[in-house]
DNA sequence: CTTAGCAACCGAAGCGCTTCGGATGTGCAC
DNA sequence: GTGCACATCCGAAGCGCTTCGGTTGCTAAG
């Protein structure tokens, strides 16, 4: 059996194709009784609008793509949660979410670009933003509606949803200071990313107020991978003077760092305290359970979706730059400092 | 500037719209010289076919969806790798991959169904198969091309790609037997899934040959979550007689189990050996590094994609039921048994 | 009684592509 | 000269929808 079309509904319900279309799409110049009749028939026939026909006529696909960078998906489980929330919200608004995930050749972006040009998607949610991002302008130049998870420096006109990374890191730093730590290491995310800059600034500021600033040798830039966390920690651990605590850019980095610490025959948290970021499911099951920062993933996703739709439909609220706060999740990977030297 | 259409190319290259279309789509009744001319113009104008128009005319979307169950994505990182490979392969064939991931209300499937009815997708890759699967027939009844990652009992006509879970588990079991273990626990995946049945049968058979069969109390059915692994292990650990080794259905389950073992004041591997499944990135960084089973994700993804396309285009090879072997990755979570009691 | 204004509805064009069925031209055997 | 096979090309229809620009029939003001 072939799928029913608008014409089938028109025939069944005794009105024109135009009226059926307008009834189904919620236009106002359709009487309530007609609308009800049309909806009843549509439901009975299990009608589904043909996305191609609709797209061709309206130039809209009702699909939006989530674009991220190389390996971000595997290394940043938090994206999964955020995107689930995005999908859920979009679904309620009649949109589908597509993941344009990255391949080694960085095709995530190219894919999205070409999908837009083919009218397969109406807009893009970009999941990681670089300082002086080279990708963002490519979308913007083509007039592709973009919403950022993160923030683009000096581009407040691009709608965005972000977490207050600076405040979160400031809080983590203060927590460690309160435990008596003064020598704090910092495994930063790649500083080409805006979020990494923000987080570091939070750390830096509190450290400056408290102890005159971070020690440069203990600040290491790492990728998101476990191995990179291991290597970063190893570098700090093999120094002459070691920190008593290490703040990590993600839980996976923290996990790598913890392995390095064990390999150096040191204990967490007795010898070195460790803090992660993201609160991935694994964090609670580590030994010791990891103290970390939780992001409001559900809320982030919901807002991203809403911003996206209003960017596309240009009717609702104007571009917003939303920033949410994080929670500090205290577990057992940090300890009050044992023997204050200095 | 508006996107160029076939007509633009036709005008520029001096041939008809029909010829341009056929040239671009590789039909044979176009001379080489014409084809080259057309391709050149298309490239110069940066032509991208309008997916809607194409879909409307040809009734094909050149998109395929990956469908999975509740939370599978977060708990089964291996899917990410497989899907990356699927995406990569599909991309080379002119197709896009969409993830129709699940929401709590199990909408992954509904989504895919409705997307198919809207002609947004041409087929579905189904990522987990239940015994007597209730979802599969829903796709099949609608005539939706489906390829399984896994196998459906008694449905050899549905193309599938799977891993030889029975052989893998048999190998794991033999490995533990070789280390002197006789009392082996087994944290199984939900037995409603075909793959869990297969894996268990591999374990069971080897145990039967070696020691007359598994001990029923040490076989526990768990979900994929870390917590579930913890709970399952806790149940076994609180028994009067404990196993000396535990085989886990996934690395995350193993991670949960390891935490339980620590909480019981026992050591891995000295007191209890642990084996995982999947070789997630985290496995190598655990303490101790986890012995586990690696699946050939890249190959799996490639084959899934190829099967999908041939299912859609009905031209190439017939439905296949492919099964690949896994690798056992030896690390430090298993030890030769210390003191044989019995 | 006339007519402006409004609610409700509809006809037809057209979105950009594929594809069916033919048209054209060339070379070659008869 | 005629007919045929073949390679190459093209016109036009049509996919199912949205939307522009109406028309119709009613109410209520003038």
Task: Give a written overview of the molecule.
Two copies of one chain form a homodimer. Residues 102-107 of chain A have low confidence and may be disordered. The first copy, chain A, folds into three domains: 1-47, lambda repressor-like DNA-binding domains (434 Repressor (Amino-terminal Domain), Orthogonal Bundle); 59-163 and 297-325, 3-Layer(aba) Sandwich (Rossmann fold); 165-294, Response regulator (Rossmann fold, 3-Layer(aba) Sandwich). Chain A has helices at 6-13, 17-24, 32-44, 51-58, 72-75, 77-92, 107-117, 136-141, 165-178, 194-211, 226-237, 251-263, 297-313, and strands spanning 63-67, 96-100, 123-126, 146-149, 160-163, 184-188, 219-221, 245-248, 273-275, 292-294, 321-324, 327-329. Chain A starts with 5 loop residues before the first helix and ends in a 13-residue tail after the last strand. In chain A, α9 (165-178) runs parallel beside α10. Chain A has 342 residues and is of the alpha/beta class. Chain A is elongated, with a radius of gyration of 25 Å. A six-stranded parallel β-sheet of chain A has the order 2-1-3-4-5-11. In chain A, strands 7-6-8-9 form a four-stranded parallel β-sheet, with helices on both faces. The first copy, chain A, binds a DNA duplex (30 and 30 nucleotides) through α2 and α4.
